[in-house]
Amino acid sequence: MKIVMGASAGILGVILMNFSIQVTEETIIDLRNIPLILSVLYGGWLPGLITTVFIVVFRFLIRL
Predict the structure, then answer these.
(1) What does the alpha-carbon distance between residue 4 and residue 1 come to, in Å, rounded to a whole number?
(2) Which pTM value belongs to this model?
(3) What is the pLDDT along the chain (64 residues), one digit of tens a residue?
(4) CA–CA distance from 58 to each of 26, 35, 61 (Å)?
(5) Element (H or E) spanning 47, and its range?
(6) How far is C-alpha 58 from the chain's CA centre?
(7) Which of 11, 1, 21, 2 is nearest to 55 (CA)?
């Protein structure tokens, strides 16, 4: 259950990373931290780690 929670929060973080809110030309509100905080708060360290891995891997794949 914790692995599924981490994976779903990671996918939600990736989706929210793609839909960031641009306030000004230099300021962007990044919402990918919200699923990470919630997965650690309600699931513990394992879902938080899985969520972080999902977000980091996807972020590096976008850069390539």
Answers:
(1) 5
(2) 0.86
(3) 999 999 999 999 999 998 989 999 999 998 999 999 999 999 999 999 999 999 999 999 987 6
(4) 23, 15, 5
(5) helix 45-63
(6) 9
(7) 11
Token readout for 36 is 């990470």
Task: Report how far residue 43's alpha carbon sits from residue 64's, in angstroms, rounded to the nearest whole number.
Answer: 31
Q: Which residue has the tokens 């990373």?
A: 17
As given in the structure block, the two tokens for residue 38 are: 């919630």
* Whole-number Cα distances in Å, 40 to 25, 45, 48, 56: 32, 6, 5, 16
Containing H/E element for 5? helix 2-18
* Residue 24 phi, psi (nearest 5): -130, -170
One-letter amino acid for residue 61 of the chain: L
